[in-house]
Amino acid sequence: MTLPEKELRVSTAGYVRVVDVMGDDSSIVQAARVSYGKGTKKISEDRGLIRYLMRHRHTTPFEMCELKLLVRVPMDTWRQWIRHRTASVNEYSTRYSIAIDDKAKTDPDKWREQAEIIKQGSGGYLDSEVGERLTAAEAKLHQHAQEVYDERIEAGVAREQARKDLPLSTYTEAYWKIDLHNLLHFLELRMNPRAQWEIRQYANIIGHEIVANWVPLTWEAFLDYRLNATHLTAIDKEVITRINSGEEGAAESYLRDIGLLKDGKTGFKKNRERDELEEKLQDLGYNIPWSTPD
Question: Which of 72, 163, 190, 274 is catalytic?
Fold first, then answer.
């Protein structure tokens, strides 16, 4: 097991650093075999057992491993991160210490449009001319906010009050300790393309640079059965069955019956569940068997 000894940089000012680990792939196998007893003699290989546990979501053995990180992350990204309440956290306090003088900056070509369908998500990128203007304004805002904060500190204002107008782009630091089961859940959500780009950068580094080297057998199983897998709902399976039957219009008729295909003025009305179904069908190599009316 070779883990990175130095900070893993995320953008210009953020980073992730491994502080401590407990356990490895063998710890998972050991815990599982205590639980299963003699029955695990049927599974002779550690890799096979770990893959079995991952496939069938037997999560407790993965809780035998823990990872502790020191992370530096912008506060707006940290707000999403801290929603995962299954970790032990100790964060840098601006009540006791001077705020970190680093802000997350946006390159002119990285300003994203609001997504039309996913309300909390992003679409494409804004024109570079607009981006140049926004980045310049961002730099002025960061500078002004820092100057206001510094002036308050120099005037003797209490740190807990002086900080109140700092932007969410200000970096914070925290120790973050989590067991492997809950870490994989975090990665499954935050490495997903639908997750916000900023937190995906941290999740990708934690996954590919740390977890993949720490517990390689578990990481392989996680990629196969969780991250890169496609979950089929009962509706998904029924649609695929009807497509495979070869009966023209069977799948479309079924979706109309259950309310996922409703005609609008310019086509079918928007439906997130149907959009997700169509993505799965395309991922599995199927053509969408219904057409949007003019």
Answer: 190
pLDDT digits (tens, 9 = 90+) for 141-194: 999 999 999 999 999 999 999 999 999 999 999 999 999 999 999 999 999 998
Same domain, 181 and 242: no
- Burial class of residue 213 (count of CB atoms within 10 Å of its CB; 0-12, 13-18, 19+): middle
1 belongs to a structural domain? no
Q: In this structure, are residues 212 and 1 in contact, taking their beta carbons and an 8 Å threshold?
A: no
Q: State the total domains in the chain.
A: 3
pTM score, two decimals? 0.90
CA atoms within 13 A on the CB side of 72: 18
Enclosing domain of residue 158: 108-165
86 belongs to a structural domain? yes
CA distance 106 to 133: 11
- Whether residue 68 contacts residue 175, with contact meaning beta carbons closer than 8 Å, is answered with yes
CA 193 from chain centre, in angstroms, equals: 8
Same structural domain, 250 and 212: no
Q: For the chain, what's the residue count?
A: 294
Q: Are both 125 and 184 inside the same structural domain? A: no
Helix%, strand%, coil% for the chain, nearest 5: 50, 15, 35
- Residues 184 and 137 reside in one and the same domain: no
* Residue 190 known to be catalytic: yes
| Sequence letter at residue 35 | S
User: Cα–Cα distance between 148 and 142 in angstroms, integer?
Assistant: 10
